[in-house]
Amino acid sequence: MIDQPLLSDAFESGEDFAIAMDARDPLKEYRDLFFIPKFKGADCVYLSGHSLGLQPKSAGAYIQEGLKDWAELGVEGHFHAKHPWMPYHRLLREQTAELVGAKPEEVVVMNSLTVNLHLMMVSFYRPTASRHKILVERGAFPSDQYAVKSQIRFHGFDPASSLIELGPERGESYLRDEQIESFIERSGDEIALILFGGVNYATGQFFNLEQIVRAGRARGCIVGFDLAHAAGNLPLKLNALGPDFAVWCSYKYLNGGPGCVAGCFVHERHASSYDLPRFAGWWGHDEASRFQMGPEFRAMAGAEGWQLSNPPIVSLAALRASMDIFHQAGMESLRTKSVRLTAYLESLLRESSPSKFTIITPPEPTRRGAQLSIRAQHSGRALCERLTAEGVLCDWREPDILRVAPIPLYNSYHDVFRFVQHLKRAVS
Ligand SMILES: Cc1ncc(COP(=O)(O)O)c(C=O)c1O
């Protein structure tokens, strides 16, 4: 029974099965496009792509091209490099738009994630005396919590009364769709901004973005998403979904490298909202007159109008290498493999030592991406350290969560099999 099983009960537990699944994997050649870290001369079991994606082997050549142009052309590289630096960020526009289901003018690659989140809140968090609250999922990534609290204080409000953190019902591990929707319906007229992670970093829950946008917009709220754990992990349709903005980083599922330049989406309905307050920089200025160096800022249309600075070529070059691979593989094919690979991981975990840990990520494929979060309540961080010492790389989030993500571009069924063998030994 090794033909394309989708349901977890179609999986078999032996190593032969994993090897046979890899042999039939239509995306198996993609693994070879990445450097897999080594342990004692063999490939590590690398299940940390939710934290830092692996380096495409082609990244060096993309970066080298920029370095060579810089060495040979100096400042002239802005216009005469093989890919001139002046419009370099546009090389990523079409593929980024394709990746998140947006129109090209709705996306821009710039800055870092938290910076982009602040820039978006400057424009889209406009609190008033009666509508000043920000709704986030409880347990949002700390940087997002710090960012929203600082924005609330910046506007003279108090997070104690202006920040709502919606958590799961007692005894449950994740938020139910109905709970989010009914909360927005009930309290929407006090909420200025709904800011949800697409996929929660700790639980791996993929929220029902469509429902959140629909419910939020029906109540007059601005809706934004932090897609750090969703971009490159799940197919997205941002233009059709219609959030006001979204931001994401490029060093996790997008393999752009540590600290790589981030992504930003602004829905087309705001493309010409020049009256929105925004923090301005020269790269967001109308391109045609940017080099007239005039004193007054005039924003470009679309997401590019939120840019501040001229683009970081080396970082963008590394990201181009990965985005070319994504474009070739296609997000739908990647997702098809990802659903199976994660279901396979889940099925092996359920078979082995179920009393030692609990999977807190939702079981439905529609409510999660690649990541499974495993609550290892009796083990502590030492469990993750034991795995690392054996060349098995996943990560630990306090107090008791082991996060594991098989990445369809470069992880194999055999990686998943090996991980579960190591985990069983480590908890026993
Ligand atoms: C969900 C989420 N939001 C925000 C951040 C912060 O990202 P950055 O340091 O790139 O601003 C991270 C980093 O891992 C994250 O996972």
What does this structure look like?
Strand 14 (395-397) and strand 15 form a beta hairpin. The two termini are 30 Å apart. The strands form four sheets. The protein has a seven-stranded mixed beta sheet, sandwiched between helices. A four-stranded antiparallel beta sheet has the order 11-12-15-14, covered by helices on one side. By secondary structure, the protein is of the alpha/beta class. It is built from 14 helices and 15 strands. The structure holds pyridoxal-5'-phosphate (PLP). Pyridoxal-5'-phosphate (PLP) binds at residues 112-114, 141, 143-144, 197, 201, 226, 228-229, 249.
Ranges with pLDDT <50 over ≥5 residues?
1-8
DSSP helix fraction: 25-40%
Strand content: 5-15%
Task: Identify the overall geometry.
Answer: globular
Query: With helices defined by DSSP (H or I, 4 residues minimum), what is the helix count?
Result: 14
**Which small-molecule species are bound to the chains here?**
pyridoxal-5'-phosphate
Rg of Cα set = 22 Å
Distance between the termini: 30 Å
Q: Major β-sheet, in short?
A: 7 strands, mixed
Salient structural properties:
seven-stranded mixed beta sheet, globular, alpha/beta, single chain, disordered N terminus, 428 residues, 13% strand, binds pyridoxal-5'-phosphate, four-stranded antiparallel beta sheet
Give a nutshell description of this structure.
The protein is α/β, with parallel strands linked by helices and 428 residues long.
Blueprint (SSEs and pairs):
Layout: H1 15-23, E1 38-39, E2 42-43, E3 45-46, H2 59-73, H3 77-80, H4 93-100, E4 107-110, H5 113-124, E5 133-137, H6 142-154, H7 159-162, E6 163-166, H8 177-187, E7 191-197, H9 209-218, E8 222-226, H10 238-241, E9 245-248, E10 262-266, H11 313-329, H12 331-351, E11 358-359, E12 372-375, H13 382-389, E13 392-393, E14 395-397, E15 401-404, H14 413-427
Parallel strand pairs: 3-13, 5-6, 5-7, 7-8, 8-9
Antiparallel strand pairs: 1-2, 4-10, 9-10, 11-12, 12-15, 14-15
Helix pairs in contact: 1-14, 2-11, 4-11, 5-6, 8-9, 12-14
The structure holds pyridoxal-5'-phosphate (PLP).
